[in-house]
Design a protein that fits this description.
Elements (H helix, E strand, L loop, with lengths): L4 H31 L4 H38 L1
Amino acid sequence: MTIDRSAMREAVSDVTIGFFMAFPIAFMVLSITTWLELSVPITAGVQTLVFTIVALVRKYFVRVHFKSREEVMRELDR
């Protein structure tokens, strides 16, 4: 099995970005849901929804960034 270095770089970058975004987002969601005095199940649902939306948006922008890098590299190879 060969490792696709480009795919590995993109995956590691995406996970690293997500890792550093997770704490501030969790803190914000938990602060708001505590202030609103929401129950634990509602808080868990809100947090899951927020993390899912953020992950989809983050992944989209990471993919677009790496796709444009790949296109630039292909142009340079010509």
